[in-house]
Amino acid sequence: MRSAFADTLFDLAKDDPNLYVVSVGLRPSVLMDKFAQHYKTHFIECGVAENNAAGISAGLAKSGKNVFLCTYACFSPGINLATIKQSICENNLSVKIIGYHGGLLTGELGASHQMLEDIALMRSLPTMEVFAPLDAIETVKMTKVLAKSSKPTYMRLVRPDSPEAYPHKKGFTIGKSEILESGSDVTILGYGPILTQALNLEISNWKLEIINCSSIKPIDEKTILKSIKKTGRCLVVEDHQMAGGLGEAVATLILKSGLKCKFTQIGVDNQFGRSSLDPLDLYRLYGLSTTDIITKINYLMSKK
Hints:
This protein is of the alpha/beta class.
């Protein structure tokens, strides 16, 4: 995902003289060396000063620049939320905040870098739109679309390599979800690489409808409710705190619609992260593994 984003942004800058990248001392880790070397005057290095970087990004956007603020999610929005709110969101400025290293997949870096609250924080900000691509393929498509957006934007990326599952022929549209597999028994909603676990389940007795909700805010109410109305059962899967994430957004949507269904979710349940050389060990520890997904599906299909 990091490579796909960096390469796409580099290519977009060729045709967009207003495209700027703001960094907070993480240029090699966010793979912006090539951009910084080629577009020297369009790469702003702020050093370890996250609030200052958000303020500079706001100023650039106010002057008409197309700004991408690139850093770890644990720093932005983890540290500079107030500046994002006051300088970017309240002025409705077109700053695209790219939060790298989201979720438990940042295994060996431990709790300090495993940002599990970023979706909740950014969803709560007025004017902010929130996205999380499924894989590198969708990262490319999403970056091209968001580069043309005039809204404050947050896009979440993960650190390690991840499997590709997004259909090459599918595009990306703000406010739309994509049905990756059609089914009639259980609706599974999610975003990011964790959703690919649902695509690889060895289940033959149940027909799963798997939907990629990469546009978290604005959310695709029509597609989600239509699917849940058909299946009567919903499972939300996310590598994030259950509080404030997609699960809560979908639960609220269901309640507001008056739709009756059986609902459950998988996510981090009010805990901090920890270190692991294999991030999938953390998925097993926190109840986000394929086994846990199957257990939840069996619960939804039970008569209880």
